Amino acid sequence: MSEEHVDYAQAPFTNRRYAGFWMRFWAYLVDLIIVFSINGILLIPFKFINDGASLDIGFWTVTGILGSIVLYLYFLFMTKRFNQTLGKMIFGLKVIREDAEPLKWSDLLFREVVGRFIHRVLFFTIFLYIVVAFTAEKQGIHDMFGNTRVVFDE
């Protein structure tokens, strides 16, 4: 039996296997472990600057701001460059556009920055991720903003 590579640009929409909530959840957890590890390494010097006390800029902390920047940049650049983050790579998932064209910066800014910001703006909006379990193409709110889908990389 020969293995066949699916070219999503040529494949009809019905041949795609959309990644469901749990596969995306586990990939996201792996990504968070990676981002938190990077943040831990990058932000250690800030603990020593102020004898362990947090550096505040009004309502925010410096480590919170820098940690958020690292998180958004990780998701933005990994998805733009590889169509997947390291977590998605491990679980064999890939982000594609609705029309199967290459991902554009505008798609990713809406998906990775605006969409993820909305998920984090209030404590209960994190639960909007569960929308993935109930949509036909397994889209989260952030996917809808960016006109993207997460599929199995077959």
- If you average the pLDDT, what whole number results? 84
Using only C-alpha atoms, the radius of gyration works out to 17 Å
The first-to-last residue Cα distance is 15 Å
Number of strands: 4
Order of helices and strands: HEEHHEHHE
Which segments are poorly predicted (pLDDT under 50) over 5 or more consecutive residues? 8-12
Which secondary-structure class do the elements indicate? Answer: mainly alpha
Q: Strand order, biggest sheet?
A: 1-2
- The geometry reads as elongated
Fraction of helical residues: 40-55%
Supply the number of helical segments: 5
Main sheet?
A: 2 strands, antiparallel
How much strand?
5-15%
| Domain module tally | 1
Keywords: Cell membrane, Membrane, Transmembrane, Transmembrane helix
InterPro entries: Pra-immunoreactive, RDD
Protein name: RDD family protein
Pfam family, one: RDD
Question: Can you characterise this structure?
Answer:
Residues 18-147 form the RDD domain. By secondary structure, the protein is mainly alpha-helical. It has one domain (17-152). Helix content is 51%, strand content 9%. It is built from five helices and four strands, in the order αββααβααβ. It has helices at 21-49, 62-82, 86-91, 105-121, 141-146, and strands at 56-57, 60-61, 93-97, 148-152. The strands form two sheets. The protein has a two-stranded antiparallel ribbon. Helix 1 packs across helix 2 and helix 2 runs antiparallel to helix 4. 22% of the residues are buried.
